[in-house]
Amino acid sequence: MAHHYGELASFTAALRGEPDAAPVLYLHGMAGTGKTTLLHRFADEARRTGRAAVRVSGACLRPSRRDFARAVRHAADVPDAVLLVDDVDRAAGLETWLREGFLPGVSHRAVTVLAGRRAPHPMWTADPGWASCARVRRLGRATREEAHRIMDAHAVPPAPRPRVLAFCAGNVLALHLASADAARGPVDWRPSAGVTAALLARFVGTSPSARCLTALRMCALAGTVTEDLLRTELGPHAAEMFRRLRERSFTSREPAGLAIDPVVAHVVVEEALRHDRDGFLALHARLDAHLRHRPFWGAESRGVVPERLR
Questions:
Q1: Do 221 and 305 contact (CB within 8 A), yes or no?
Q2: Structural domain of residue 109, as residue ranges?
Q3: Sign of CA dihedral 281, 283, 288, 294
Q4: CB atoms closer than 10 angstroms to residue 275
Q5: What is the number of structural domains in the chain?
Q6: What is the rounded CA–CA span in Å between residue 288 and residue 294?
Q7: CA–CA separation, 118 vs 121, rounded Å?
Q8: Pick from 296, 265, 107, 292: which is nearest to 200 by CA?
Q9: The AAA+ ATPase domain covers which part of the protein (predicted)?
């Protein structure tokens, strides 16, 4: 939790009612960055100070204001309650209603923490009223030292640690799963089928379509993708898939196109090599042939190109 020190400090300052503290904290980041764990810690801190903590999840609510109001009625009635909303972006319209309808009527002594995978609506920072009382924090990667502490907790021997570090790319969830796996593994450890399947489901979903997997594999191999590059494999479906990729919390906009987070790329490659090796090698060959004319195209500019493919 050391890499969440700033978020913990902001939350405890709000609990104490410090003058410059913001009563609303919005956390966002891709799966595995520790949002839910941090909300558990916040709930413990709130109870330790004698404040009521109300926790709800947007993933468990129907997109209904009535359902949400029923779930958080205690937070509205108790002046100094702490409201913790996980997966706020999973319930359609919930974030907007919270900002425009519910939170303005909550006691000024209440503390609210919202957490979701996607970045919040710009109005949280663009509107002067919200900008003064809400803080937006993006949860990032664990540092190398924090990663080693996680591996220490799982008793990972020295030899496989470099591979675990490279595969996980600082993602906390991946570090825990991979460390538990590597603690029992050989020197030349590679993530097990169980680890990669669990992470793919968490990052991408339980049943990604063939088009989605193709787009993700292209991202992993090319480093960045554009709609034009996706069109070489997906044809008329490229525009829709590019839009969907752009909306995912694990992608980022780069000057050359869309890129996916390294840990997602690593998971996608391992899954492809395990379940569709020939198809993945063929895709790699087609991309390599198509992109040879791109300036600086080479191993250093590619995405995740495993050594056994070079």
A1: yes
A2: 2-138
A3: negative
A4: 13
A5: 2
A6: 10
A7: 9
A8: 265
A9: 21-179
